[in-house]
Amino acid sequence: MSTMNKRTSLEIFKSVVLALFLREVQTRFGTKKLGYFWAVFDAMFMVLIFAGLKSAVASNSMPGVDFPVYLATSFLAFYLWKKIVSQSIHAFSANKALFAYKQVKPFDTIVTRVLLEILVSSAATLIFVAIGLYIGLDISVKNFNMVMLAVFWLCIFGFGIGLMNAVFAYFYEFYAKLINIVMTPLLFVSAIMYPIDSLPPFIREILLYNPLVHFMEMIHGYYFHSLNTYYVDYEYMIYWTLIPLWIGLFFYKRSEKRILSS
Amino acid sequence: MIELHNVTKYYKTANEKKYILNNVSIVIPSDVNVGILGRNGAGKSTLLRMLGGIDFPNSGIISSPNSFSWPMGLAGGFQGSMSGRQNVKFVCRIYGKSDYEIEQAIEAVREFAEIGDYFDMPIKTYSSGMKSRLSFGLSLVFDFDYLIIDETLSVGDKNFQEKSKKALRKKIENCNVLLVSHSMPVLKELCDVGIVVHKGQIHYCDDIEDAIATYNKINK
Q1: B137 within domain boundaries
Q2: pLDDT at B62 over 60
Q3: Rounded to an integer, what distance in angstroms lies between the CA atom of residue B148 and that of residue B178?
Q4: Residue B150: left (phi > 0), alpha (psi -120 to 50), or beta?
Q5: CA distance A120 to chain B (A)
Q6: How would you classify the pairing of strands B146-150 and B201-205?
Q7: In the list A102, A234, A239, B44, which could disulfide-bond B53, CB 3.0-4.6 Å?
């Protein structure tokens, strides 16, 4: 009989994710010392640019909302989602060498990258909060729990899309390029720099097909006292969360062995 | 003990299926060291990968109550951007070792591998000899029932080869080895039984000498 300790699959999963997590932290932040800097810089840069632009061209169109705070919530949430999706897509190939150990499953690498992005984003959020308090912006939250629910939901949404993309992109290089093309304009059509209510109805109708708009509106509606969640369609968000997740899990399960042995 | 039950494994090439194993059923008994022979491309490494649980037969079942190491080969199983030390830590962690055990393992591997400062350099800067030193040293830290070794004993300089063989002889007092090698003296020295992988079949021989003879016949 085996002289090695028998462990349950949950125990193995936990130790693998921990090991992968520490490895990702080391490669992301260890070798390039600027890793920590970029984690915050992305979102910060965007907030400064658009807050500056806005104050240059228009007066405050959202009474009761500090526009930089609006932008900060948008970009932090958007980058969290975007990084989860873009990091997941290459998770398999980046960790390929480690599949030599049978404990390490491709699925674990996605879970690890999602957890890492959540951690990085949380750290960036804390820094934003500190800056907001320091320069005296109104960062009070209308309904903290609902904001957290929206962000958590956004992570699950990103995980589902990320897993699905990772599986398809592993076998079809073209798919990864396609996703890149789709991701680029999202910044401008996801209710990040404006509330959806401020748009002309026919544009609004179209943009509401973008699931990210609903997540952004949900976050904004529960964060700011003077905004609401009138346009948020929870059912639509559930579809966009569950369907990619199901497709991702289904095709992952079918192709796990092929990914491991290729 | 290792049991292969109706195992079929093939790769698809452009025109046909190339069979590595074609409906193979054998039982490898417990407590023997197994030498694996076969020509290049016969499927020795694939067989080792399947035993190590990182490749899978197209049909059939491979079963064993025992624990297997990862296949130690030239390819490594190391993440190039991480240092030797970080890779050792990583492997210890996935096997659920405690922090104290990890510290001990790092010391043991560092001492065995004798790669000096390179221990803290990224693996991608290593030569293939250094990689196998690290890989082999690392495997000695764990108590597997079977060590899966793919050719690694033949790399490295004379001095290290001797050292590895000595360490391996000591290690296989408590475990067994599945060894792919093209060096007949090494096989004769370390293995009790042999299997020859040839044209989709496995020939099991009770004596490593017979296996070598079979292999030589194939090569004629």
Answers
A1: no
A2: yes
A3: 5
A4: beta
A5: 21
A6: unpaired
A7: A102
Closest partner residue to A102 (CB to CB) among B52, B96, B145 is B52
More confident residue, A5 or A18: A18
Q: What is the pLDDT of residue B53?
A: 86
The amino acid that residue B38 corresponds to is G
Are residues B96 and A100, on separate chains, in Cβ contact within 8 Å?
A: no
* Helix, strand or coil, per DSSP, at residue B121: coil
Q: What is the maximum span of chain B, computed from C-alpha positions, in angstroms?
A: 54
ipTM value of the model?
0.88
Residue B29 to residue A51: CA distance in whole angstroms: 73
User: Residue A109: which of A38, A19, A31 has the closest Cα?
Assistant: A19
In a domain, B158, yes or no: yes
Q: Give the nearest partner residue to B82 out of A26, A100, A260, using CB atoms.
A: A26
Say whether both B64 and B166 belong to one domain.
Answer: yes
Question: Length of chain A in residues, anyone?
Answer: 262
The CATH code of the domain that includes B8 is: 3.40.50.300
Has residue B103 been placed in a domain?
Answer: yes
Domain that holds residue B12: 2-69+144-219
Cα–Cα distance between A189 and A206 in angstroms, integer?
A: 10
